[in-house]
What does this fold into?
Amino acid sequence: MSVSTILRRRFGLPTRVLFVAAAASAAGLAGCQVDVGGQTLPSAYYLQDDIQYFPAGPEFKLSKEAAAQKAYKKEVGDRCGGGPGGGCSCGKCG
It folds into this structure.
């Protein structure tokens, strides 16, 4: 007796229909992104996905912090008499 004959006798039509339906629904869920070894791979439908546009930001990400440090150095330099090498003895002018 072949395997297909045994399966046909053991599992009737309703079981086979249920198996086919489960396999079809599992195949439908396979279209999402997957992470394999730290690499994100696209879905099967990546060509139909919406395109997202993110405008370019500033090249230097810490511009606010740099401006704050510059303003602080200017304030300390004005208060202490000229900043580094200008005869300051406060220890903050660096």
